[in-house]
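Example with several molecule types.
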Amino acid sequence: MHYSSFDYTASVCLNCDRTNSCFVGKNMVFKWRGKPLFVRHRSSEEVEDVRNVDMSSLRDPEQDTDRVVKEDWLVVIGVCTHLGCVPIANAGEFGGYYCPCHGSHYDVSGRIRKGPAPLNLEVRGLAYCTKSLMCIYCMFMPVPYF
Ligand code: FES
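Resulting structure tokens for the full complex:
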């Protein structure tokens, strides 16, 4: 599935200080339909790393290019595909997300790389950031998650 053709029916734009809220490497969490929505600003090195992964090594093979619209922004549901815990960002063996419940490791594309989870984190939208505004698009309006 190519997410550039996804039907984005709602969006939210937040004022932000690019040097603070939107900096590269930061994972932000919003709430979407009662679930955590992870929005991650990826570095060019992170993008290069996940795009050089051998597809045959993946349990749920998906190209990174099929999981994002703008390469530096990943938007996924923050629910582990094993039994539904919320993974920790910037953790685990692949630098993406780690679910400590039973030890699932996801990469910076949200793809399962190690542990019991059977599937990648679910892709749910796109995001981009200007000098003072961060916009997130997904099927329904997300709200800040605290
Ligand atoms: S719920 Fe995440 S590893 Fe089991």
